[in-house]
Design a protein that fits this description.
90 residues, alpha+beta, five-stranded mixed beta sheet, 3 helices, 5 strands
Length: 90
């Protein structure tokens, strides 16, 4: 990932509070770490991208973002079950 400035949308900022209300306290550094060192990056809807990295033993963290000329805007993020988002390693 390039050295573009990474910023959080208003929706992403609210997502920290929503997840905290459900007992999942995530910090900005964790989100930024997944952006800078993703395990996988996928194409998303409307030209957006999805960076995915580990959250814990059972979950991954998915970060939805838009890459612009001079910045990366994080739209939202959410935890997902590994079994749904990671392919089995046989």
């Amino acid at each position: 990932m390039s050295e573009k400035q990474i910023s959080f949308s208003q929706h992403a900022m609210l997502k920290f509070e929503v997840l905290a209300a459900h007992g999942l306290n995530l910090g900005k550094e964790l989100i930024l770490n997944v952006m800078r060192n993703p395990d996988n990056v996928f194409d998303g809807y409307r030209g957006r991208r999805v960076a995915q990295g580990p959250l814990d033993e059972e979950r991954v963290l998915r970060v939805i973002y838009e890459e612009k000329a001079h910045e990366i805007l994080i739209i939202t993020f959410y935890p997902g079950r590994r079994e749904r988002y990671e392919k089995s390693k046989i």
